[in-house]
Design the sequence.
């Protein structure tokens, strides 16, 4: 079966191409950059080019996007062109050629200001029922693209599954205070408790979504590592996260002490993947407990697929402020 992957040079796109080829799919990779995983180079904002690329395609994995790190380096119109117009072009041409399933890679960033509760409130329990409040052009355009997916299912019957993925990038955190306070792997290990997913699990969620799309019709799902926390933990997480982690993950401190690592003093949100596991039949592997066991065994924090894809960065140039410019 022929499938199409947009953004085939990026982290997720390359991982999807590698995985889908290993599963014996005929993969067409699209990107604005050449790479061993790109079949056709061009822009999804060009509808005529998109039309030529979709011939014979049965499933679309739409991972191409301008990301949050581009907010300071690209115009708002660039985000509209790529994230909204590009998605619209793909949806229109997918309907025209009879695509059977459309999987759209969105982001937990669409939740925006809904992720940060007031200082006197408990941590936010983030499910698909939380209303997004986008706070930048990235979030706004991804939310609009989600709406287009819903519209094309409603009006054209195109099965569309939207996956709001949490962090899976290997690059350093964009917050200089966090970079100074925590080693990179320490911070990422902490985030698997509440806001990170391994690249291999993100890919398996996309494959699972494609397989269930025609049954689901339209659905939106949070893709993040399975949290050990429960709703009754939310008040304590804001002010004494280490004690909550100790309760849910007893014995973690020994490995952290051995490495000179530390836990976050407070956690303000928790992403919940229960609906994705239930509806998609998704079986994420890399959670905090699994990763802790791997660290104890001397293994790498990243999955083999994540290590294979490696770090790509988001910009061709370097910035004095860190891995990305600050706006």
Sequence:
């Amino acid at each position: 079966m022929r499938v199409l992957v947009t953004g085939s040079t990026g982290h997720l796109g390359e991982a999807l191409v590698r995985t889908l080829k290993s599963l014996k799919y005929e993969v067409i990779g699209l990107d604005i950059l050449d790479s061993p995983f790109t079949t056709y180079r061009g822009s999804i904002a060009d509808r005529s080019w998109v039309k030529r690329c979709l011939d014979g395609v049965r499933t679309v994995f739409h991972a191409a996007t301008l990301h949050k790190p581009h907010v300071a380096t690209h115009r708002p119109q660039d985000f509209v062109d790529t994230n909204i117009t590009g998605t619209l072009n793909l949806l229109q041409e997918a309907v025209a050629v009879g695509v059977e399933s459309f999987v759209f890679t969105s982001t937990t960033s669409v939740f925006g200001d809904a992720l940060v509760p007031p200082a006197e409130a408990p941590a936010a329990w983030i499910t698909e029922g939380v209303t997004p409040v986008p706070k930048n052009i990235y979030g706004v355009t991804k939310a609009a693209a989600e709406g287009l997916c819903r519209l094309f299912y409603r009006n054209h019957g195109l099965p569309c599954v939207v996956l709001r993925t949490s962090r899976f990038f290997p690059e350093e955190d964009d917050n200089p205070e966090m970079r100074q306070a925590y080693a990179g792997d320490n911070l990422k290990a902490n985030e698997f408790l509440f806001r990170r997913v391994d690249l291999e699990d993100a890919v398996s969620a996309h494959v699972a979504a494609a397989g269930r799309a025609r049954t689901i019709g339209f659905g939106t799902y949070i893709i993040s590592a399975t949290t050990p926390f429960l709703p009754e933990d939310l008040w304590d997480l804001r002010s004494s996260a280490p004690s909550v982690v100790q309760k849910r993950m007893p014995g973690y401190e020994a490995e952290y002490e051995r490495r000179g690592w530390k836990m976050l003093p407070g956690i303000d949100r928790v992403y919940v993947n229960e609906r994705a596991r239930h509806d998609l039949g998704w079986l994420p592997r890399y959670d905090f407990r699994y990763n802790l066991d791997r660290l104890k065994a001397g293994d790498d924090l990243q999955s083999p697929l994540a290590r294979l894809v490696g770090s790509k960065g988001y910009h061709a140039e370097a910035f004095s402020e860190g891995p990305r410019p600050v706006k």
